[in-house]
Amino acid sequence: MSKTLIPAQRRERIQEYLALHRIVPSSELSRLLNVSEATIRRDLEWLEKEGVVERTHGGAVLSQRMRMEPQYMQRAARYVEEKRAIGLQAISFIEEGDIVFINSGTTTTQMIKQIPRDANITVFTNNIQAALEVGEVGYELILLGGNFQPTSNSVAGRFAIDILNQVYADKAFVSVDGISLRHGCTVPSSVEAELIRKMLERTQGVRTILVDHSKWGIVSNFEVTRLDQVHRLITDDGLDRHTREMLADLPIEVVIANVER
């Protein structure tokens, strides 16, 4: 790249590079643009103020906004094997006699579908799609009441919150639409965000986030939780090395599900 780029040109090149790679270390940008890392840090600070990137320890991630929730079937068709692997990894943490909260989402649907039918557990969920797909099971599957949310094939609202207020779970497994170091876990629906927050609040044991690698760097409108408020993150092996290094600095267990492709 040119050695004489002005700041505006450098920032444009940084955005172009992030659009391709999503996450990049400052050292790599410094090498590509032939400027000091201090100059790159100033450029990233400027881009962060503009809402274009989110700075991380030693680099940046492209800040991508999700303002509307995609239809369920659109989301269900993406990263199916990754979601299945994450779901299978998640159920390995469920123990005999557990009361478990699981929210709606295509990843949690894959989780519920793989729970052994004769498991001695109780599952509370707002995930209508999973309840329909799983059919008859031997464990106790309790579907929360509430207002139907057609984009996610789920229920939410005051009736669901009222039920959750009567229960303490041993564990919670929740999927979200976006995750980042700065903005934490976010979703595009205010009622789903309220329900997830209540699930986490009413969980006495381990709180686990389930996300495939494509959710990293996505920011939606409603915060669910900060990363330092949960205990475990389960994702797939498509997560890039730089992001894994950033997560290693957090007080959270990161579990990587290996995907058979």
Topology summary:
Layout: H1 7-21, E1 23-25, H2 26-33, H3 37-49, E2 53-56, E3 59-62, E4 64-66, H4 72-76, H5 80-91, E5 99-102, H6 106-113, E6 122-125, H7 128-134, E7 140-143, E8 147-149, E9 154-156, H8 158-164, E10 171-175, E11 178-180, E12 184-187, H9 190-201, E13 207-210, E14 218-220, E15 222-225, E16 232-236, H10 241-247, E17 253-257
Parallel strand pairs: 4-14, 5-6, 5-10, 6-7, 10-13, 13-16, 16-17
Antiparallel strand pairs: 1-3, 2-3, 8-9, 11-12, 12-15
Helix pairs in contact: 2-3, 5-6, 6-7
General description of the model:
Helix 2 packs across helix 3 (37-49), helix 5 (80-91) crosses helix 6 and helix 6 (106-113) packs parallel to helix 7. The mean pLDDT is 88. 42% of the residues are buried. This protein folds into two domains: 7-62, Winged helix-like DNA-binding domain superfamily/Winged helix DNA-binding domain (Arc Repressor Mutant, subunit A, Orthogonal Bundle); 72-257, Rossmann fold. The protein starts with 6 loop residues before the first helix and ends with a strand. It has ten helices and 17 strands. The strands form five sheets. Strands 7-6-5-10-13-16-17 form a seven-stranded parallel β-sheet, with helices on both faces. The chain has a three-stranded antiparallel β-sheet with strand order 1-3-2, sandwiched between helices. The chain is an alpha/beta fold and 261 residues long.
**CATH class category label of the largest domain:** Alpha Beta
Measured by DSSP, the beta-strand proportion falls in 15-25%
Largest sheet: 7 strands, parallel
Our Rg estimate from Cα atoms comes to 20 Å
Question: How many helix segments?
Answer: 10
Low-confidence stretches: none
